[in-house]
Amino acid sequence: MLAYILRRLLLIIPTLFGILVINFAIIQAAPGGPVEQMIAKLEGFDAASGGATGRISGGGGEVATAGSNYRGAQGLDPELIAEIEKMYGFDKSAPERFWIMVKNYAQLDFGDSFFRDAKVIDLIMEKMPVSISLGLWSTLIMYLVSIPLGIAKATRHGSAFDVWTSSAIIIGYAIPAFLFAILLIVLFAGGSYWDWFPLRGLTSSNFDELSFSGKVIDYFWHLALPVTALVIGNFATLTLLTKNSFLDEINKQYVTTARAKGLSNARVLYGHVFRNAMLLIIAGFPSAFIGIFFTGSLLIEVIFSLDGLGLLSFEAAINRDYPVVFGTLFIFTLLGLVVKLIGDITYTLVDPRIDFESREA
């Protein structure tokens, strides 16, 4: 198992490199880079809304005559254009800029944001608490609700309980998380009815003045609505996956044999079925966590005014803040690969019969 873990850790390096290469090439073809953004600001236009839609010729910063390769640059001093290119590193060719980026990333140096006047790593660490809070608690609650509910539905398949819970699950799945978030605001955050929960931020303005218990209560008070919105939109798939996985195992021959030996239903379910049925559920944990952690919370962050990684990445992409775009991409990908490896290790803890090393031999 140790050899398998080492191989997987080594495989992370070429995987990260390949993802960076592909995304770097795509970014070069996208119009409205940082140089165009700055030119648009100097000309008084909003580049994000289309004021500067040109791109660097050749897609990599190779500039023939300063100012002639950018839309909206007419009338600006060519020396000023050259200074802007140098400021953002576009006085170098695309391969050279990519190689510099890779060398810096190898030293965990993600550079500085183009437009926020801060280091990329500091921005990520600043936004991390929001995304960790949303991802961790949403995933935890989702699994704590979905697995027991799925098991209960499997053991009572076809009963009235199974039917009405399935109806509730389908309704919850059909409502988008952002729409449910708006409904929660209307009902419980002073929209039209009750004003029970705060509408913005992860903590209150007087958070530092509160006692420890007061801080804990305040923290979860702010998280109640956004986490609920995320859970409602994501627990349906896991619940049905758990039910179908357990149903498949319950109908197998070894379960019939165990019952014929006089074992109780609880002993059969949790002593034999549980270990086998949970393998499929564990397989989906990394993608579920990463999905809610990074992508699934973007609209929730916007609706509840939570300044997290999802919003940071979105704004960086819109503003062509390349250091932030690639820095967050690198960290997201690295975390995703590590969590996937942890999922494989968890496989062996649940069922020691699984041996990934022998499979690769």
UniProtKB/TrEMBL annotation:
Its main location: membrane. SUPFAM superfamilies: MetI-like. Residues 128-343 form the ABC transmembrane type-1 domain. One of its GO terms (biological process) is microcin transport. It is found in: Cell inner membrane; Cell membrane. It is a multi-pass membrane protein. Belongs to the binding-protein-dependent transport system permease family. One of its GO terms (cellular component) is plasma membrane. This is Inner membrane ABC transporter permease protein YejB. CDD domains: TM_PBP2 (cd06261). InterPro entries: MetI-like, MetI-like_sf. The lineage of its organism: Bacteria, Pseudomonadati, Pseudomonadota, Gammaproteobacteria, Pseudomonadales. Probably part of a binding-protein-dependent transport system. Probably responsible for the translocation of the substrate across the membrane. Keywords: Cell inner membrane, Cell membrane, Membrane, Transmembrane, Transmembrane helix, Transport. Pfam families: BPD_transp_1 (PF00528). The chain crosses the membrane at residues 9-30, 132-151, 163-189, 219-242, 277-304, 324-343. NCBIfam families: PRK15133.1 (NF011712). Gene3D superfamilies: MetI-like (1.10.3720.10).
